[in-house]
Design goal:
- By secondary structure, this protein is mainly α.
- It folds into two domains: 242 residues, no CATH class; 76 residues.
- The protein is 87% helix and 0% strand.
- The chain is built from twelve helices and no strands.
- The termini are far apart.
Length: 331
């Protein structure tokens, strides 16, 4: 009963990131919808000829989608991190078994186990920062989208003011000349003012407020996850991380085992080479015997030997001449 209660409490804590993200999304979007209804934002966006507000809303949708996926990912990481903490309390670092789901916390524990198996020194702070850096970059990307939306809002403001100035210039030029041109100029000026105000409103609210808070929620969740894993390892796995005689003996046994495996591979290679050389020697001997046997029964060779004897009898060589000369001198 006690373990079930602790597990339920851990599951509730793991849901904090997702609950906070959804709470902020619902409340913020509700307030923005109320504001946009009173300010007639949707109607302006539908008729925005500059398309600046469309670009801002598109970036907002992208940022919300990325942040939502990250919040879901971090929620699963929190569930797994609490289970790893429970395992560390009971069995230590060596008792943690990888879940196979590709969690960042599992990769972090695997990296620590690999360092311990190699009898290395663990820098937990550096390792955990490297392991969770990808999630920080995602949060920073969402925050960057918010900054870009604010910048686009300011660009829309400048563009709207430019349109306003051009409209007022046209209206003043047609004052007292053409009433329709005057009205068109004033309408263009009002549209420019609308672009200036609405782009600033949408960019600052959606990017400067909503996306930045989404980025803060996920980035804070990543920091909390790092703190949880760091505290769990320092408290429950400190004995596994400190160098000791058992780790040295284990590392030495692993080195000896690797050396034995290499020696066995070398012996196998030498045995294979010895067999190949023996086979090659047998083939060479057989080839020599076959050539001798072939030479004995070769009529061309017999004919060549006969011609050679006949040639020596007619034209004796230098050795034969010396023998004949030596024989004559003795006589």
């Amino acid at each position: 009963m006690v373990s079930n209660g602790l597990q339920k409490a851990a599951d509730q804590r793991a849901l904090r990131t997702f609950a906070l993200w959804m709470g902020w999304a619902i409340s913020a979007l509700t307030m923005f919808a109320m504001m946009s209804r009173r300010a007639n934002v949707i109607s302006f966006v539908m008729h925005d000829q500059t398309r600046v507000t469309w670009l801002i809303i598109g970036m907002f949708v992208l940022g919300v989608a990325v942040s939502f996926i990250q919040a879901m990912k971090l929620t699963t990481e929190w569930f797994r991190a609490y289970r790893i903490e429970d395992t560390l309390k009971i069995r230590g670092l060596s008792g943690v078994v990888k879940s196979g789901a590709g969690h960042l916390v599992d990769h972090f524990v695997d990296a620590m186990q690999a360092i311990i198996d190699r009898n290395g020194r663990i820098d937990v702070d550096a390792l955990i920062n490297v392991q969770f850096s990808s999630q920080h970059r995602i949060s920073q990307f969402v925050g960057m989208l918010g900054n870009l939306m604010i910048t686009l809002g300011l660009i829309g403001t400048v563009l709207g003011m430019t349109i306003t100035m051009n409209g007022l210039n046209g209206a003043l030029g047609s004052l007292g000349v053409d009433q329709s041109l005057l009205i068109d100029g004033l309408r263009s000026a009002m549209n420019g003012m609308g672009v200036a105000f609405y782009t600033t409103l949408i960019g600052s609210v959606l990017g400067g407020v909503l996306l930045r808070v989404f980025s803060w929620i996920t980035d804070t969740s990543v920091n909390g996850l790092q703190d949880l894993m760091l505290r769990s390892c320092m408290v429950y796995a400190s004995a596994d991380m400190e160098p000791n005689e058992q780790r040295n003996i284990k590392a030495l046994d692993a080195s000896v085992e690797q050396l034995q495996q290499r020696i066995e591979l070398l012996n196998l290679a030498l045995q294979a080479s010895r067999n190949e050389m023996s086979q090659l020697r047998q083939e060479a001997t057989q080839m020599h015997e076959d050539l001798d046997e072939l030479a004995k029964h070769d009529p061309i060779r017999k004919l060549a030997a006969g011609h050679a004897r006949y040639a020596l009898s007619i034209h004796p060589g230098p050795i034969t001449r010396l023998k004949n000369l030596f024989t004559k001198q003795q006589d």
